[in-house]
Inverse folding.
């Protein structure tokens, strides 16, 4: 799982985990959202890391309503994860779910987000030079993998609901190269003979694409819902990676060939874009 959004200290069981978790191991908060907290801990053995996603009680909601909503959302996410795995979509494996206490325990996926990958890729360009992205075979292959994994998700009858580059991960084996190229302190090897900082090394783009964070996911085969998924991802490219916005066409090209009904989804995407532009103009 990615830990770029938040990294906190080890904490000591701020919520009831029950007897399924070995309480001799601490939890480390790695991400915090509006609805849930994600911890890194261990599962069964100290050598098996896992991600624990917890939906804490909301004090502003009536306790009965809050319990019902939490139960529904935890179960919904768990069902989607199981369905995706059965259909061959690369997602974290589900280890355990406790809908009464509001948490899921999942596989810890080693890797970095596609957001991190593309940011590191841009940082590797020489200063003042724009890389010929459309001619980069590795980058094309990465976009192809993104388009195909989204297509497989939709074939499985699931829409993500929050499909951004932060929720797409590049798994191993590209982890070490990406970590080296992502920034950090400047060593002697990163400075040229004139004392200027060299650009980071070009990151590796090898590895499988893994979809994460299904908190807003739903089971649907409607073209409208699938098109909205693609529109959210397109907006993520435009806002988070403006220098790489043109690459989204490669994602759509791979998506179009991923399943038989993709063309009707792309036709609906044009309608969704039009509504999005009208909404932007009207505020």
């Amino acid at each position: 799982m990615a830990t770029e959004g938040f990294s906190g200290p080890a904490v000591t069981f701020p919520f009831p985990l029950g007897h399924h978790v070995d309480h001799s191991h601490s939890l480390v908060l790695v991400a915090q959202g509006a609805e849930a907290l994600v911890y890194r801990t261990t599962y069964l053995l100290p050598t098996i890391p896992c991600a624990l996603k917890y939906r804490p009680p909301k004090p502003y909601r009536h306790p009965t309503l809050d319990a019902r909503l939490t139960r529904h959302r935890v179960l919904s996410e768990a069902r989607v994860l199981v369905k995706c795995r059965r259909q061959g979509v690369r997602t974290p494996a589900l280890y355990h779910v406790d809908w009464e206490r509001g948490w899921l325990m999942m596989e810890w996926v080693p890797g970095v987000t596609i957001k991190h990958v593309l940011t590191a890729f841009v940082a590797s360009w020489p200063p003042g030079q724009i890389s010929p992205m459309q001619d980069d075979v590795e980058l094309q292959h990465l976009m192809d993998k993104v388009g195909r994994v989204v297509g497989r998700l939709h074939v499985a009858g699931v829409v993500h609901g929050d499909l951004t580059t932060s929720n797409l991960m590049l798994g191993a084996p590209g982890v070490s190269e990406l970590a080296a190229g992502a920034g950090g302190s400047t060593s002697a090897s990163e400075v040229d003979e004139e004392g200027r900082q060299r650009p980071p090394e070009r990151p590796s783009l090898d590895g499988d694409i893994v979809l994460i964070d299904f908190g807003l996911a739903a089971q649907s085969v409607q073209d409208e819902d699938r098109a909205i998924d693609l529109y959210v991802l397109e907006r993520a490219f435009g806002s988070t990676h403006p220098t790489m916005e043109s690459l989204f066409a490669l994602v759509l090209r791979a998506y179009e060939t991923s399943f038989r009904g993709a063309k009707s989804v792309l036709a609906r995407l044009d309608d969704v874009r039009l509504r999005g532009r009208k909404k932007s103009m009207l505020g």
User: Anything to note?
Assistant: Residues 174-192, 194-199 have pLDDT under 50 and may be disordered. The chain is about 40% helix and 20% strand.
